[in-house]
Amino acid sequence: MPNAATIEKTDVVLIGAGIMSATLGALLRQVQPDWTISMFERIDAASPESSDPWNNAGTGHSALCELNYTPQNADGSVDVSKAIDINERFQVSRQFWAYGVENGLLSEPSQFINPVPHVSFCHGADGVDYLRKRHAALSRHPLFEGMRFIDDPAEFADRLPLMSRGRDFDEPVALNWTDYGTDVDFGSLTTQLLAYLGRSGVDISFGSEVRDLAKQSDGSWNVKVRNTRNHETRVVNAKFVFVGAGGYALPLLQKAGIPEMSGIGGFPVSGLFLRCTNPELVDQHEAKVYGKAAVGAPPMSVPHLDTRVIKGRKGLLFGPYAGWTPKFLKDGRYTDLIKSVKPNNLMSMVGVGLTEMGLTKYLISEVLKSQSGRVYAMEEFIPRADGGDWELITAGQRVQVIRRKGMGGVLEFGTAVIAAQDGSISGLLGASPGASTCVSAMLDVMQQCFPKEYTAWQPKLQEMVPSLGVKLSENQALFADVWNWTSKSLNLTGVPVTQ
Q1: How far is residue 332 from each of residues 42, 87, 248, 325, measured CA to CA in Å?
Q2: Cβ(124)–Cβ(171) under 8 Å?
Q3: Can you list the positions of beta strands (E) in 28-169?
Q4: Are 59 and 183 in contact (CB under 8 A)?
Q5: What is the pLDDT of residues 409-424, one digit of tens each?
Q6: What is the mean pLDDT of the segment spanning 286-304?
Q7: DSSP class of residue 390?
Q8: Can you give the pLDDT at residue 377?
Q9: What is the pLDDT of residue 497?
Q10: CB 280, CB 270: distance < 8 Å
Q11: pLDDT by residue (tens digit) across 162-190?
Q12: How crowded is residue 24: how many other Cβ atoms within 10 Å of its Cβ?
């Protein structure tokens, strides 16, 4: 490390220029404008990995349509607790974005969020029965008011012409249809937040890769940063570090050596999608339609046919198809996985390898799948799919969290905040629902890492997120207020909610 005279000083270091770091930076700028903040991104662009609009489905995960958030119990009932929790968290994001538009943090909302119906789709008698029960369980909750159950083939065809053409309606079909879903371009949203941070004095350095983290005797961190263009190295000392580096959050937190990372490993899974930008087909479908994952497939592999709105243009995305590479980022290194295996997580990694044989078989079958095989799988949604209308794209790389369990390990599908006990460093691991719950996740980071300051910040945080600390599912009057406010501020044609 350089001597003390050459070490730069800052209050906060944000690693990664994705939606998480951008959101945390914006929140901190609002509540503590006197703090100095430095952000480092290894790529020469904003939101280059998971936050890129074509690297995720842009669903705005609110559990309106994702069936993996509403599992069916052994007795046939449907558990909606996770769906309610995720929807609550998405409402927090909506509130902060609405505040951002009204207060100059964000510009034209249609550049990053647009209304698109969210739809759950099942076929066969068992699938129809499941959606009927799911609708009954969700529709009585205020957050899911207005969801419709549809099992009439004529209405199905009227609402989803691309999916109905050539379909044999002798097999029963059903939908859970919600008009007030959204499509979110997290790339544009991140870019707007970064522009605000730049205007407010945050030092944002692209082409700057964090290579090491070393804790100092006073509790601060020395962050070693390498310029990817001229290979020069600088060291920045920070009182607090947030690691929002996507798949690279795992190795960076390992380098930090905090006890909370003991036993934690990661398993990389890449996603492939079929993309269509043919206006003739795009105009025949306007919805995000989610089905059920195949038997043995991980929750993140739920098939879906999505309307996307990116830079004002509509497109369609179908997938995901799983791929595999040992890289932790699309722009990562082939040695990422093997280098992440440490003495403290070896048993966790080996244990998952022995217990997740179903996932292994699924990944092998997906990797070996041909283009014709992918189009065949799409025919469940689009019976007359023509492969010539679709191009294969590689979406974002995800690193699923592996935690120690007994003498082995367990693979987790979700988003996890890791924070040192003293609050000096924190990071985000995992994937879905990820970006959609970014504000809620970053508020959790602030509460864990700045417990003393958090109390003083609460009035300002309450201004940005009026429902802070309140469950909207238990306060219908407040939900009506914030829903109608955010719908107006974000120019969303959602269904007005009444008390």
Answers
A1: 10, 32, 8, 10
A2: yes
A3: 37-41, 113-115, 118-123, 148-150
A4: yes
A5: 777 777 788 999 999 9
A6: 80
A7: -
A8: 86
A9: 56
A10: no
A11: 999 999 999 999 999 999 999 999 999 99
A12: 27
Q: Which residues pair with 310 in a beta bridge?
A: 313
For residue 402 the two structure tokens come to 């592996």
Angle at 37 between CA 435 and CA 462, to 5 degrees: 55
Assess contact for 324 and 272: CB atoms under 8 A.
no
pTM of the shown model: 0.91
pLDDT at residue 237, rounded to an integer: 98
- Long-range (24+ apart) CB contacts under 8 A made by 253-258 are 253/418, 253/425, 253/427, 253/429, 254/340, 254/342, 255/212, 255/213, 256/213, 256/215, 256/221, 256/420, 256/425, 257/215, 258/418, 258/420, 258/425
Cβ neighbours of residue 345 closer than 8 Å, sequence gap 6 or more: 262, 263, 264, 265, 402, 404, 409
What is the token pair recorded at 322? 């799983």
What does residue 21 show for φ and ψ, rounded to 5 degrees? -60, -40
Q: Residue type at 378?
A: M
DSSP 149-177: EE--HHHHHHH-HHHHTT--TTS-EEEEE
Percentages helix, strand, coil for the chain, rounded to the nearest 5? 40, 25, 35
Burial class from Cβ neighbours inside 10 Å (0-12, 13-18, 19+) for residue 256 reads buried
59 pLDDT more than 70? no
- The 3-state DSSP class for residue 62 equals coil
Q: Which two tokens stand for residue 159?
A: 């609402």
For 108, other C-beta atoms within 10 Å of its C-beta total 10
Q: What is the CA radius of gyration of the chain?
A: 23
The Cα–Cα gap between 193 and 234 comes to 26
Cα–Cα dist 375/402, whole Å: 32
More confident residue, 3 or 355: 355
